[in-house]
From TrEMBL:
PANTHER family listed in its UniProt record: UDP-N-ACETYLGLUCOSAMINE 2-EPIMERASE
Source organism (scientific name): Niastella koreensis
InterPro entries for the chain: UDP_GlcNAc_Epimerase_2_dom, WecB-like
Protein name, per record: UDP-N-acetylglucosamine 2-epimerase
Entry keywords, A to Z: Isomerase
Entry keyword annotation includes Metal-binding: no
UniProt lineage: Bacteria, Pseudomonadati, Bacteroidota, Chitinophagia, Chitinophagales
Entry keyword annotation includes Secreted: no
Gene3D superfamilies documented for this protein: Glycogen Phosphorylase B
Family indicated by similarity: Belongs to the UDP-N-acetylglucosamine 2-epimerase family.
Domain UDP-N-acetylglucosamine 2-epimerase: 25-363
Amino acid sequence: KKILLVAGTRPNFIKLAPLYHRIISEATEYRPYICHTGQHFDFNMSDVFWQNLELPAPDFQLGVKGSGVADTIGKTILGINEVVQQHKFDLVIVFGDVNATAAGAIVGAQSRVPVMHVEAGLRSFDRDMPEEINRIITDHVSDYLMVSEPSGIKNLQREGFAENKVIMVGNIMIECLLRTRQLWEHISLPHAIDAVYKNHPVVATFHRPENVDNKDNLNRVAEILTSFAATETVIFPVHPRTRAKLQESGLLEKLQKESNLLLTEPLSYFEFLKLVSNAKMVITDSGGVQEETSFLNIPCITFRKNTERPVTVELGTNLMMDLWNKTYSTQIEQHRNHIMGRERVSIPLWDEEVSKRIVNTIKRVI
Ligand code: UDP
């Protein structure tokens, strides 16, 4: 039986890898094919993940270069459709909430190939986020919904999904982190990062459109980074989208002049995990980083209005913070003290068996 795994971005690659390897090693009756849509294509947003995660070259490389959501999803649909029409797949699997996710799910559904969504049911309840639209579309055309945290089950029940389509499998990103732990713990870091690594730096990542596309908000992000750097060493691996916006607005040069603020290229998966696991705290607007920090018990401050991953706030180490909150530094200090003073809480099914549960479902349905 033939399974098509669709991925387009950095977080997709991380979620795809454990499932790919599990199928190859433990479910040899299936042949997984990888389709890379091309949304992330730079060496440090794509190839380095392929290397770290020991993935083979994609079977299908679409190379889609879109100039916006509609353009990207449209071209990706056309590309995946060609692949699906030429090969008779028994299942299409999509991951997360990016444009490749929605495009893959739409093509599978229209071609009457069963669709499985890994990381189903997450909701921020904020349709200003392009990812929220992708989540809703994907779930509603999928046949099998693989859920990572309890809120996903509740959301899908509320939206009327049949119970037998929805399965709690746990968080596959955490499986990836665990399976590669021996490797990332021993990776050597770039010199400039290594020099401050032992002092528990603050790690920052920002790339959400609401924070970096809006000029006022981007200014505010720069202000927050600068104020952290007044008292801490801050390492900021800059996402290509954010770099372009900072450059446009003249903020890049300003930030580069801050002595305790180290701007770097996006880090490899292994470098990033090693750095985060030793960080004093992480400030972010990422989805996956909220989960990784929760698992690693590193305090995380998420500068967003909402999260689609509420378990990271309820059981994990995540504190949501409005970008414009004036008293954020006091609240952050209190949060850090709270996290550091308590026992690590484990989140149900965030373990090394997630892909096994998914494969068990595959075996049941195709
Ligand atoms: N990541 C990385 N290098 C970096 C920043 C992030 O390898 O410099 C990894 C990290 O594991 C993170 C994942 O990429 O969880 C997700 O990326 P991103 O924040 O871009 O996407 P989101 O989860 O917000 O969709």
